[in-house]
Structures are given as structure tokens and as C-alpha cells.
Amino acid sequence: MKAVVCQNAELTVRELPDPVPQQGQVLLKVLRCGICGSDLHMRHHCDHMGELMARTGYHHFPKASQPLVMGHEFCGEVLEQGAGTSRKLKTGTRVCAMPVMRQGSEIDMIGLSARSPGAYAERVVVAESMLMPIPNGLPSDQAALTEPMAVALHAVNRSQITRKDVAIVVGCGPVGLAVVAMLKARGVATVVASDFSPKRRELARLCGADVVINPAENSPFDQPERYGFLDGLPGLLELGVGTREQLGKLPLPWWHVWRLAEKLGLQPKRPIIFECVGVPGMLQRIIEGAPLLSRIMVVGYCMEPDRIEPAMSNNKEIDLRFCMGYSPLEYRDALHLMAEGKVQCAHLVTGTVGLDGVATAFDALRDPERHAKILVDPASLACQP
């Protein structure tokens, strides 16, 4: 079969042996595969990413010198089923598959391991247990977005956001746009999106953002009073002292009323901020600008050492949460949310190439005014996205 191989930062189309499904595995014909930001990083920073993964216990990340077939955002068609599979899905069934694979007693991440090749190829082997039929005739272009949409769903779930909260999404690349779409699917009434790129701001609107901001002109944190957020430490002090003064006028012990109010969920308003940029300095800038009591979800994947000023987070009582990946349930839910028309994500796809166009697509993705998400269609002859 033909596949795109990355080796020493070079992307080339090669003829590889046909993959054969083993025990509990299924062979898919690749219909579409998304080019992920992590793939762009992998090309030039493979060894660094591997070192980071090894520090968290994952020791099968490839070396830059090893031939690697990337691609973990894919959908395909069932071709062949290995021994020990249930064969519940007929040949020709369109499916998505969570990109993880058992290798003996270990688990690999497909497309992020030299021994578990990804879907920049005509065919890919996956675990039967990770297969999910594509429901409701969802087009393959959108089904291939299941993986990044699951990442966004996981971030939204970890944020514990409610419909009444204000969400601020900083950075409208593919991950930020997916977060915007998932927030609106969750029913969040006010989603603010911020990005320097006019193209990405327009895509944010199409994904459902209620307010779109150019940070070169305005900060997404300006006018906190517009949403009822506390304006600085004096506002927090006034809230505490003023509340105590008012409760003291009641014919009840003020502390009982205060505890009851907290049990009923009466708390100061604060935004849920999704950092979706992942470059050094961004987290500190958000901490500086965020209103008091903000919850910051770090979705952007910054692989370089960074510095923050913890005392500023203390002063503002910032809640800082990091996230990565998703669960099988979140992957399944993301797929079904798209198939049920609850997620506006079709606009993320801005181009498609064949295997011969993958290297060109990697270069094209450097320009935010041209592209957000480019898909690989192994059956296509297109060399330009």
C-alpha cells in the first residue's frame, strides 16, 4: 500500500507492505484522515515530544530517525477482520476508531508509535474494541473530525461549565474552534472567541461564537462588569464586607443564611477561560487579564518551559486546570453529537489532499488565513489543499 512516511523531518510517499489484522484487530480502508497540530509538531520536534511522553510513563514514542506513519484523526471502511473478532460489522461498514491499540501487555497510540502506524495511508489496522459505526449517514469529512471534537468535549467536561456561565475561548485554531462548537452544543449561552486572524474569527462565528474579538483591538477580558464579574480585589472585598453587613440586618444568624446561600450555589460570577494557543507567555497573559475567580482550562499544548507568576493567581483565586485527550465514552459522544446535528463543525474543514499532497498541506497550515483543518483522502490525486 501507499503511505506517507515521516523520517528525519522529511515527508515522503512510500510503498509499504500491506498491513494484516492480528488477533482482535480490523483492517480499514482509510476514507479521510485529519492533519493534527500534534503531527506538525511531530515532524520537527519528535524527539522532544518523546522525551516529554517518557516522563509520564509512555516509552514507545518514535525517534525522529525512525520511519513513522502519522495520522490519528480518521474514519474508514471495514475491509478485513482478524482472528478472535466478533465480526458484528459487515465488510464495507463506515466506522471511526479511537486511535489506540494493544501491543501485548502495552497500549500504543496509533500514529504516535512506530509499531502502530497511523492513517496517512491507504489502509490502517485498528482494535475492534475501539470501532464505532458512523451513525445517521454522517459524511466522512465530518466523521474524521471525531478525534479533535472528542478532545474539545473532554476539555468542556473537565471545565464543569454550566449553561449560565460565560465561556471565553482564547485562540481559534482547530482545537479552539472545536471547543467553541462543543460549548454551544452544551447549551452555553455566551461564548466569546478571541483570535488575531480574521479568517479564524469568521470560522468561530460559523461554529456558534456569540461574541468575536480581535485581541489587537480589544481584550476579551475588557468590561468585566458587562457580565457581572468582579472588577479587581476591591470588588471581592466589597462583596464580602457588603454581604456581611446586609445579612446582619436579618432576624436570623447571618452565618446560617450565608451557608444556605452557598449550598444553593449562590456564588460570584466568573468566566470559564479556554486557553487554546499553547505558546510560552500566553498563560501568564491570561492570568494577568482574567477576572477574579476565573477558571482557566489549559487546552493548548505548550511543549516549551514557561513561566507564570503564582502570586497573581493567588490574588485572583484563579482555578487552573490542564487537560489532554479524552475517554472512549467522550469519543463516542462526540461522534454522535455530530451525527445528530448538535455540533456545528463542518466549517473546520478548509481543504483536502491526497497522499502526494500531505507535505504541501503541512506547509499550508502555517497560514491561519488559508486553512484550519486539512483532510487527507488517500483516494484523491489532489496535491494542493
UniProtKB/TrEMBL annotation:
The keyword Oxidoreductase applies. It comes from Rugamonas fusca. The keyword Protein biosynthesis does not apply. This is Zinc-binding dehydrogenase. Residues 174-217 form the Alcohol dehydrogenase-like C-terminal domain. PANTHER family: ZINC-TYPE ALCOHOL DEHYDROGENASE-LIKE PROTEIN C1198.01, ZINC-TYPE ALCOHOL DEHYDROGENASE-LIKE PROTEIN C1198.01-RELATED. Keywords: Oxidoreductase. Transmembrane segments: none annotated.
